Amino acid sequence: MALVSPSILAADFANLSAEIDKIKDADFIHVDVMDGVFVPNITFGTPIMEALNKLDTPPLDVHLMIDNPSQYIEKFANLGASILAVHIEAERHLHRLVDRIKSLDVEAFVAVNPHTPVSALEEIIQFVDGVLIMTVNPGFTGQSFIPETAQKIAKLDHLRKEKGLNFRIAVDGGINLKNAQTVVDYGADILIMGAAIFRSENPAEVIQKVKELKK
Ligand code: DX5
Ligand code: ZN
Questions:
Q1: 64 CB less than 6 Å from ligand 1?
Q2: CATH value at residue 199
Q3: What is the pLDDT of residue 215?
Q4: How many domains are there within the chain?
Q5: Which residues are catalytic, by number?
Q6: Which residue segment(s) compose the domain that 158 sits in?
Q7: What pTM was computed for the model?
Q8: Is the CB of 90 under 6 A from ligand 1?
Q9: CA pair distance 190, 192, nearest whole angstrom
Q10: Does the interface ipTM go beyond 0.95?
């Protein structure tokens, strides 16, 4: 069974509560925080967490696409993040940051851009709860999956087995019902999906189909 995390970046913010209602059976909600510095787009920050806290939502999976993420960890943890993903490319002291996230009882995920090799994770993966593999260049919803990134999922899954670790593998960007089984076959556990869920006719059905995917 695969886990699914709809990205609210693709939702209609004018109807946030109705949009959340459509995805109530999802395993997480993916919250894409962008600062216009680490990525060429600005989205939202803690106010969206406050809004989500007023609704009945699945656990919040927060993806920080920001420079200097360590400055904001406590804020997002206090607002109920159940996963915090920080980019390896944005943090000099990743080991310390991963430790701090875990000490707040939040799952620590490390995110990697398409150009970052899996080998760059070798000395950190034993400490993390998960790795988020970007399958597009971060910044926008609705982009096309970069097929070459699938190899990284397989490599990471191999490394996980070889080292006897049990961190989770999340994939993010351009995931849809056409490529979902492929990424699951490669070893992905959590499928983050924006446009494929919120811009579909029947988000609940897409979620159900992803959850039923077999490894
Ligand atoms: C991209 C974000 C993704 C994005 C996913 O920078 O990190 O989470 O919102 O959206 P889709 O599935 O539409 O590519
Ligand atoms: Zn994301």
A1: no
A2: 3.20.20.70
A3: 87
A4: 1
A5: 32, 172
A6: 3-211
A7: 0.98
A8: no
A9: 6
A10: yes
